[in-house]
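Changelog excerpt

This revision adds worked examples to the README so contributors can see how folded entries look when concatenated. The first example is reproduced verbatim below.
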Amino acid sequence: HITYKQCLKEVADLNGISVTFMCKPFTDSTGSGCHIHLSLWDKKTDKNVFVGDLSKGRLKGCSQEFLWFLGGWIDKTPELFPFFAPTINSYKRFVSASWAPTKLAWSFDNRTAGFRIVGSGNSLRIEMRICGSDVNPYLAFAGSLAAGLDGIKNQINPPNPTDDDIYTTENLKTVPVSLEQAIA
């Protein structure tokens, strides 16, 4: 990750241009995100632990562990926000109808949700769409995995899924809107 970024900076410099990894360098266009896809696999059975017989909203075929993992991840996201959005510029992405999630909600295959459930069977996974391109992927993955495993350990249920446009849905918890708010 660091080697890649440094290489791009040096190649750009050799060509008399510059490169940025800011997630939203221009206010008049959408930003760049870093979507994290996670599933949990049992090494002994080589099966996706998220697969089961439960249904929640439009999601069919998930396990209780899936729901708890998702619940923990959503629950801990406000605490992990400095990992997910580490710079002042990171928060410029979180604008309604900008393709960046502004609320802590989940849905099956809904691109306005911060947590989008995709796939079925062994491809079932959670896509977290909150991080920007300026994220440290190692911290984001570690925090996400820890939050999900905490959800399983403490049996944290997720909120109900939302199939509507999340930007216009009321009564949902919002993401922090500044680094100052995220670390408070």
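The second example, added in the same revision:
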Amino acid sequence: SVATEAATIHGPLNVREMFCACAACESRDFSLSACGMRAEFGNYKIEYAKRAVPRDQHNTRMRSLDEFAHTLRAGQVQAIAVAPDQRHIEGNIWFVLLLSDAYVASEDILHSTYQIEAGWWVVKAKYYYRVQRSPRAYLLHAHERVLVVNTLIRLPAPVEFDSPRQTPRLAAMLTEPGMPGHATSVVGPLRLMSDKKYNAIESSMQDVR
């Protein structure tokens, strides 16, 4: 019937404006004649709420990780979700330039702050460091790292920086004393990203992680 078909898409719920603690309602008997407080609270009525989309049990997180890893290529820019205790540095997202395709670690790799186990998907990369707040401007760190692919945000496509618009202010950033461009650990060229694009990536994190 039409009602049965609708119920498979929109789950039926018995609702009422006030909570009832009578014996029938506490035992979850929501039939029209069971409630002992109908005169005070009125009858339940049926409302429909959209059901959650059933998860494909074959599409596991590990399978999704494998599929994502196979899309990673050297030269792509990807995003990493920042740990809560580090978000005060640059915000919720860090960007990295991939220096290799993703590959499976053949042996354990020990770093000063973390350990990578053999069999994990990893990729060689360099971090971008923000050197200007608005518009967001980034320089590439010279130090190469090995990152665990599972730390990357699984965006549908690689990140693209905005086309740079050369201005006197931006041109001076690499020559002013004390700017990160003078540090040997940070190199150009300068990469720009609008706040609008950054916010769009940030807002999509809950949908892709």
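Reviewer comment on example two: Helices lie at 2-9, 23-26, 38-41, 61-69, 87-90, 168-172, 195-203, 205-208. Confidence is low (pLDDT under 50) at residues 56-60.
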